[in-house]
Amino acid sequence: MLLTSPGLPPQHAIPLPAATSNPTSGASTPAGQSSEKKQPMMMPIHSPHQANAMRNMHQHMSPTVYEMAALTQDLDTQVITTKIKEALLTNNIGQKIFGEAVLGLSQGSVSELLSKPKPWHMLSIKGREPFIRMQLWLSDANNVDRLQALKNERREASKRRRSTGPNQQDNSSDTSSNDTNDFYTSSPGPGSVGSAGAPPNKKQRVLFSEEQKEALRLAFALDPYPNVGTIEFLANELNLATRTITNWFHNHRMRLKQQVPHGPPGQETNIPTRENTNSTPFDPVQFRILLQQRLLELQKERMGLGGNNPLPYPPYFAAAALLGRSLAGMPGAAGGAAPNEAELRALNQKFQEQMAGLDLSMSSLKRERSDDFDDDLDDGHMSENENDSLDGETEKSGEFKALSNHAQQFLNNMRLNRRKPAAPQWVNPAVPSGQAAGQSGESATERLLNGEESSTSHHHHQQQHEEDMEQNQREEEAGDAPHHLVMEPEVLIKQEKEDCESDSLKEANEGMARSQDEDVASASVTSAAAAAVTNASAWNY
DNA sequence: TCACAGTCAATAAT
DNA sequence: ATTATTGACTGTGA
């Protein structure tokens, strides 16, 4: 039996560099059923001793972080991160070490978590775990000391290594990792490349040029949920892989949503916000025109003129949508037929009017990567005459001739599929039926844990049916079922509204919370659990 | 296959 | 040296 010691952060994150595939899914997974598990389980368990020692609380092991994350309703992530930041700062502890040792996350992730914590109700259970860990860490008396110790340890290790020559993989202290190693040429998957053994296919992060970014932002403003046709069109225009385009859209959507968590009182920003992105279906012609303008401006700005004004975007979006709507009503535009000059001119006009008051200037004009200005906009003819394309009717013909091809076919596959984004699945409890989450096999467990009384309690109150369940469960625990805690409480916090209702949870929480100190205050994390976890030497120190 | 949530990890910026 | 940003990837679910 392996009791997963609750607080253990997802181990690794330290050792394996590239091997993204992750151990978690390891062997299991028989053929069929995919229903993988994820979450905390299976870790090597250091020290079998004490493991079961403490864990007698009603023979129920203390909740795992996952469970806590699932059962905790409402936690102020902002407060937690503030405390953490403060603690790290005053003790001179870096995000890197904190992330690795406490959260099991990389520096970048920690940074994001700390600086832009998503509100609790927006987090999935998985996403809540780091916050639970932070909370637990905060309530750990020796938290700082331990990290400090670890820090020293590492420093010495690296020092030693440096002086003793290149090889010599430190070792003593489990927590190796460290800077400068990382070449584990292991790069498993693709294989093919590698060969030379030297440059393990690095990741090579492709940087977009300002122009490309601008184009993407524009496209996003016009249609945050582009369909395949649009994606392809963009990929073509910008000379990027479609995969890259979709990645960008995904990332952008997510990151946009992530910020602006405040402003609770009414006031829903009109960020794209999922599906019904009504507005127009994205018109390549329109896109080109707008883009051209943007690029011109961009260029202008680059050449001195610092008329730059920040924040073009949010407003920009609204404007674009607006624009789109008006254009939609126009004859040829988006109609399907290649636009003629008159129309184009009209479009431009419209556009100008609409955009008149806005500031479309680039906010982030910093870091210009040496005027590669037009190299990426395919045929380059984009920027040729910067003599203010608008108004003149000269350049249109040539330019749009080229475009009409794209546009043409584009418009064809357009409007087919416009799939609506799946509903957000925050804390999707569910376990609707079938195997769903659990997968630890036995449904008994699920049922048992699921919903109300779940952990803690079985002594007091209720439940008609569970008598025997209890037993089942016991057996299971004893048996092996490592994960099993996959319980899926009826958290169902379902985004907005009703977010704080689920009484079942409340109950559970209360149950768990009985006794013990309470300095953790603000949080409703069960302090009991916290204590247990804490002294169970949970972290990676 | 798409969207999404989380993360990683290479770079940028401080 | 740290922290912030961000393109890409993995695991899920529909």
Could you give a short description of this structure?
Residues 66-153 form the CUT domain. It holds the Pfam family Homeodomain. With 541 residues, the protein is an all-alpha fold.
Shape: elongated
What structural category do the secondary elements indicate? mainly alpha
Evaluate the radius of gyration. 28 Å
What is the overall pLDDT average? Answer: 56
Biggest sheet layout: none
* CATH H level, superfamily name of the domain at 65-158: lambda repressor-like DNA-binding domains
**Secondary-structure element order, N to C:** HHHHHHHHHHHHHHHHHH
What's the number of helices?
Answer: 18
Strand content is: under 5%
Which blocks of ≥5 consecutive residues have pLDDT under 50? 1-60, 168-199, 263-270, 306-425, 428-525, 530-537
Helix content: 40-55%
Question: At the third CATH level, what is the topology name of the domain at 65-158?
Answer: 434 Repressor (Amino-terminal Domain)
Characterise the protein shown here:
Helices cover 42% and strands 0% of the residues. With 541 residues, it is an all-alpha fold. Among the domains are: 65-158, 434 Repressor (Amino-terminal Domain), CATH 1.10.260; 206-260 and 280-302, Arc Repressor Mutant, subunit A, CATH 1.10.10. Helix 9 crosses helix 10. 33% of the residues are buried. Mean pLDDT is 56; it is low at 1-60, 168-199, 263-270, 306-425, 428-525 and 530-537.
